[in-house]
Amino acid sequence: MWWLPLLACSMESVSERPKDQDVTGCNGHAVLCDRPLDEVTLPGTHNSMSNADADWLVPNQQHGITRQLEDGIRALMLDTMEWNGEPYLCHGYCDLGNQPLAEGLQEIESFMASHPREVLLIVFQDSLSVEATVEVMDSVGLTERVWAWDGQVPLPLLGDLIDADTRLVVTAESGGAPPTWYHHAWDLITDTPYDFSDPSQYSCEAFRGQEDNPLFLVNHWLGTPLPSEENGRMANDAESLLARANRCGLERDRRVNILAVDFYNHGGLFAVVDELNGIQPAL
Q1: What is the DSSP string of 219-264?
Q2: How many helices (H) and strands (E) are present in the chain, helices listed first?
């Protein structure tokens, strides 16, 4: 059956996944260079900063930002807050886990500097002001890499974004332009609901953003009500993940551009994204 290779891949850990990527390509694959951003699927993480390796309580991920990027994550969902008068990455309560915003964004900048053929996307759940966020981004050098949407579709080719070194797409759930590259997320993205406690509840219906927005985010995780590795394994099962992505694509009549999960290190996220991008999954 068509999904058996994906299931086999889902049994591997991320670190064991064969590296067949072309370093001269775009996001690892030459075939993606000539595709517009809105015709590519990016693997993403929900509450990307919240990770067990750094001892966050009730984390959404096992590994931190640098490891996620090295493993192949290309869309990060980051929550910003002011804590003790300083900008931080936190989810809800900073006492449960936190990282200075400058430190987290420096991890992204360092990765981009050492991986010049990768296009990344950030969705900020922003409790910080636009000005405070931009100030930190500027301090670590990320504002040198941002892309500004001119309202036209299709979006630029991945290869063109890479050639221009405008490889970072920045969006925010609350804030927006100016500056022009600080996009209000729901002007650029439309998504699905995300509050599921059982796979039977998965919905593809429109949630935020207009249906004709160029990018489509599928939120695919379970909380009962809190995240757990067990839920991550269940949600990220390759057959289930691919089936939902395909169903959402059909129901919404559009490509899935961001597939976001908890505990990405379990299951078949990368194999499913390869399948959606028309790239043969690694066996």
Answers
A1: E----SSS--HHHHHHHT-HHHHHHHHHHHHHHHTS---EEEESST
A2: 9, 10
CB-CB neighbours of 211 under 10 Å: 10
Q: Does domain 29-276 have CATH number 3.90.1170.50?
A: no
- Where the chain has pLDDT below 70, the residues are 1-23, 281-283
CA gap 20, 200 in Å, rounded: 35
Check if the beta carbon of residue 78 is closer than 8 Å to that of residue 104: yes
* Cβ contact 41:258 at 8 Å: yes
pLDDT score, position 69: 98
Chain-centroid distance, C-alpha 117 = 17
Report pLDDT digits (tens) over 6-38. 433 433 434 334 344 456 799 999 999 999 999
Q: Structure pTM?
A: 0.91
